[in-house]
Amino acid sequence: xxxxxxxxxxxxxxxxxxxxxxxxxxxxxxxxxxxxxxxxxxxxxxxxxxxxxxxxxxxxxxxxxxxxxxxxxxxxxxxxxxxxxxxxxxxxxxxxxxxxxxxxxxxxxxxxxxxxxxxxxxxxxxxxxxxxxxxxxxxxxxxxxxxxxxxxxxxxxxxxxxxxxxxxxxxxxxxxxxxxxxxxxxxxxxxxxxxxxxxxxxxxxxxxxxxxxxxxxxxxxxxxxxxxxxxxxxxxxxxxxxxxxxxxxxxxxxxxxxxxxxxxxxxxxxxxxxxxxxxxxxxxxxxxxxxxxxxxxxxxxxxxxxxxxxxxxxxxxxxxxxxxxxxxxxxxxxxxxxxxxxxxx
Amino acid sequence: xxxxxxxxxxxxxxxxxxxxxxxxxxxxxxxxxxxxxxxxxxxxxxxxxxxxxxxxxxxxxxxxxxxxxxxxxxxxxxxxxxxxxxxxxxxxxxxxxxxxxxxxxxxxxxxxxxxxxxxxxxxxxxxxxxxxxxxxxxxxxxxxxxxxxxxxxxxxxxxxxxxxxxxxxxxxxxxxxxxxxxxxxxxxxxxxxxxxxxxxxxxxxxxxxxxxxxxxxxxxxxxxxxxxxxxxxxxxxxxxxxxxxxxxxxxxxxxxxxxxxxxxxxxxxxxxxxxxxxxxxxxxxxxxxxxxxxxxxxxxxxxxxxxxxxxxxxxxxxxxxxxxxxxxxxxxxxxxxxxxxxxxx
Lengths: 345, 345
What we know:
Oligomer: homodimer
Largest sheet of chain A: 7 strands, mixed
Shape of chain A: globular
Helix content of chain A: 40-55%
Largest interface: A-B, 41 and 41 residues
Strand content of chain A: 15-25%
């Protein structure tokens, strides 16, 4: 017997659209393997309209709307005026996907979306790291209380498995330290500055290639890396911290001369995320550090990222993600959905 | 209610002893979490005697026997004359651990041990890569037929999760290519030769530090790497290949001048394991290759190892294990035992 699994998507940006394409591609395979017919019954966006159709939204049509109109066609029969919170609160669904843009200083309104879903006994997946950086412990407890599943694998390294790796393969290991290069913008900028380019050229090239935001301040000042560090410390070390508690220094004051001076001593400057236990307290930092050319981290180039997880029983384990594209984020969300399917009652 | 889980260990070398120590440390935690009381009811060795005790062998005493006598005390009441195959065939147990030394050219007698366990409806864990390199498909099918669980996480990178990573976190991904540096002896030798040491000095230093075998030929000639490559291709790509089918070239003919010549061009020579699909056929190779200094692989130093798994949906994912010690292998076996516990029945 085939069971219908109804999902709502809050947000339909690049990652949401890539997820929709992947779902279209794998829909029948999932149906065959798990006996679930996945249907997207609602999609909300901030400024492109919303869609609601309890029989399942036509994703092909929706993707071509975005391509042709850059918004949803208001003449569609499934066009809706409901906003994100109204969809979370009123629509009948099984799984909510929080794919809205992050507010790095509050985690809202994504936190409230997820709370509402749990309070209604629904499952939640978030690709928005705000809720995990700001309210992980509270959300985790609420999900348990309500018997809701809660997954967030894409919040740090797109689809690269970190949380599932630790949960599924490092049981009984205690995480004692975390290191990483987790912000692609700063990694790219530092590398290109070292190659002799000037800052403005590097930023405009990054924007053209699509991975530097219109306003790159959140990346350059280390806020994105601080949020990811908070996520790692909250999930893997039980820190119950927030981005503002991470000891943060961006790369905005790094000068060409600093980079050249480091290079003359065989070093490279990288923005390093770090978490460890000091005097019984879990502390996190994001800071530019000089990395030796013999260090693995010196060869994390461009938009690649890396995390090293140190544990008592398995020592250090390093995972590298190479030049991720939006399809990897889509796979991460897809993987979380598969986890819901496997663990649903 | 607490259920007794009876295990037999074939082999009690460094990894077996480290596993016994870890089991002693975590026994009560497992009992509390999973309600299983793990008891080692038999241990066999090639030349140090065997032990059988259905009430559970005293592991502390056994470890001190090894430390003090380098064999089992023949006056112990649990001392036994049964050999490995007799233990697999006759003792009452739930899980067999195959920890005997590998025969790289046949995979035997480990393959027969595992077959016997499955034919008796028992579960099996192997840290011996021979069976996976030589007979994976057959053993996998037999385990399914007999409803036996079969785990082998330590066979390629000690405790580093590779197979579980792919199974648990990369579902629906098709593995299209594999690369790696998987033999620590050759990696260490090539690095030390590049540092200007001569071959004999390097080998004797490695022997002193305990990670180069008395006869290093299997490592130097690439056989160990070929067996690991066969394991990866069999498990992750369904290749049904064997070590002799891997296109293998060791480092025995690499001269100091080759290394210096590469260094002059900014390159390092590393022994690279590779698997890919060519004309619809899965092919594997082990060969010394020149690696650029900007390549991540150039910074895999000493006894560290690395594997990169390329898939259709998640692109390339790299995992690095840093300077593993015997405790990491022990954790790998322990992790496989936890998987048995979670998936039993």
